[in-house]
């Protein structure tokens, strides 16, 4: 399970300074790529998930502006990472998302309204973690990374070859917990893929003030694992590299750090004002490298997508959005007595009393 | 088993837990080959193999964080924090994830894991090796916090902690590791969340836990010589707190004193005193008193005997419980401000 050989571990190759690409920003195929492209149906699935994800994200941002969500951290611009990474997972694998990764959860098949439970403020996590094999969205930075290591270690002990995908931001890589998780994963040789979405900003702090590494993928070397630097706006490339890393991990090659270079187009959350810290030209330049547009152009050029199919996808996205709109307004809210239900396996007397007290208060109105 | 130490009893509990349940895993710093710096995991790696008991990198947040993931996937990890103060890097994992996973997931994920922490002073250790950190954990909903004081409880409570459906912070009083008692394992003492009367008495209830239980019993013995009958309760579980056993005793004796090693201010004793007051107000002959460590960083070993509550200090407090309104404010008088009014032109006197 762990590496036991006496020989020194192989030196992993250096990640490339140029991000790996399968599709160029203009939607054309890159020649002689280092990775095989996902097959046609996967490419179409990626596009569909990105279009739906983007529409969902847009709808959630609107709901936040209307005050129907307590807060919403948009991942607009990062669709290729959200979708490319998640669709690479097998059903038995686990996803460890952060607050920003709602689109990833939607593409994993979690009910979009349950994804928003956290952000509406109804409960800390709205979906069933076990069923979907998605850990609750993590707010403290980098702390979910070691959970994935322990989980995959446990899975292997039980003879199940589950891998895990940890989503984290560029800022999160500065946290001590990130280091500990990378190191544990490498020493225990567990199949974890740490997908760093370098969206260039940690709230107001640019990535160059966060890390002096040539790329965040270079960090992998010091831990003795493989690192890849990929174009985070190229869904095909993200999917290919994450799939490759997962497969290698499952076959015993251990963990991987992947830096996906992308950009957060919107504010940190709806309550942030990015004009205070970044140049809007920068955002405009990245808008021209839109990940959805890029894949759409490719699929059309290769005859895998026509207007009819695109309309069907957009209609599907519209349906998701309208269901979210309706249900966020009408779905039931949690009941106060539930506050005491999930603290311990069996409630201590103190909590049972406090529950009674609260119920009494509510009855009295 | 005959006469065994607390450390040995804990070791046997881990051995039996590993043998009983293949999902139990024991890991941490130096717990494998070495058997732990206190030898609590002695022999487990060779007996169960390095897949069941193993050394991890030196990274407390990582140890606890990986234990979270393991427990999410059906394992029952028992991890060791080498010393109390070295658990602090893992504090975030404990507070933000271990204690809350059940709640965050509305009960769909439970974390049956145990975090063993040797705690407290009295062994002449250098700094960062003698903290009493129980209040931090007891203050955190979602955790069970327990501390055995005897070899029998060490065995039984650790077995129970491993089997519990909730995460347990298992505080081991390191200065009592070598205390021995006659124990036959496997045995089950009282349920983990229950306080236990260690010595019956009529006049005063001494409430103690972990390392202070032995000191409290010594004190009761000494008090007996001066004609005072002292009841000693071993709390065992700090969270949840056993109000029933404690209130029944204090209502009978009318006097209560909490003893712990940790600094007194904002300490666990304040919680106990408050709960006892609420439950026993009309039965009390005196305010509930606390004897804890001073409100200072844990002192260097040359001075720790002055810091740690000892028999004489506890006897003095028992004397103070024979209440004759001897309380004087502990604070120094407010600092002198000869011309206080002049500095506050907004005050009416100043304007006048
Ligand atoms: C331990 C911790 N410290 C601080 C914060 C507050 N915080 C929330 S998001 C954020 C920036 C994170 O940046 P990054 O990791 O790049 O992810 P992004 O939000 O850009 O997706 C900070 C500082 C936090 N959530 N957790």
From TrEMBL, chain A:
Reactions catalysed, as given in the entry: N(6)-[(R)-lipoyl]-L-lysyl-[protein] + 3-methyl-2-oxobutanoate + H(+) = N(6)-[(R)-S(8)-2-methylpropanoyldihydrolipoyl]-L-lysyl-[protein] + CO2
Keyword Oxidoreductase included in the entry's annotation: yes
Domain of life: Bacteria
Chain intervals for the UniProt region annotation (Disordered): 264-284
Domain Dehydrogenase E1 component: 48-323
GO biological processes: branched-chain amino acid catabolic process
SUPFAM superfamilies: Thiamin diphosphate-binding fold (THDP-binding)
EC class name: oxidoreductase
Protein name: 2-oxoisovalerate dehydrogenase subunit alpha
From TrEMBL, chain B:
Location of the Transketolase-like pyrimidine-binding domain: 4-179
Listed CDD domains: TPP_PYR_E1-PDHc-beta_like
Cofactor(s) recorded in Swiss-Prot or TrEMBL: thiamine diphosphate
GO BP field: branched-chain amino acid catabolic process; response to nutrient
SUPFAM superfamilies in the record: Thiamin diphosphate-binding fold (THDP-binding), TK C-terminal domain-like
GO molecular function annotations of the record: branched-chain 2-oxo acid dehydrogenase activity; magnesium ion binding
Superkingdom of this protein's organism: Bacteria
Keywords associated with the record: Oxidoreductase, Pyruvate
EC number: 1.2.4.4
SMART domains: Transket_pyr
InterPro entries named among the record's database cross-references: THDP-binding, Transketo_C/PFOR_II, Transketolase-like_Pyr-bd, Transketolase_C
A Pfam cross-reference name: Transketolase_C
Region feature Disordered, mapped onto this chain: 327-352
Name of protein: 3-methyl-2-oxobutanoate dehydrogenase (2-methylpropanoyl-transferring)
Provenance organism: Haloactinospora alba
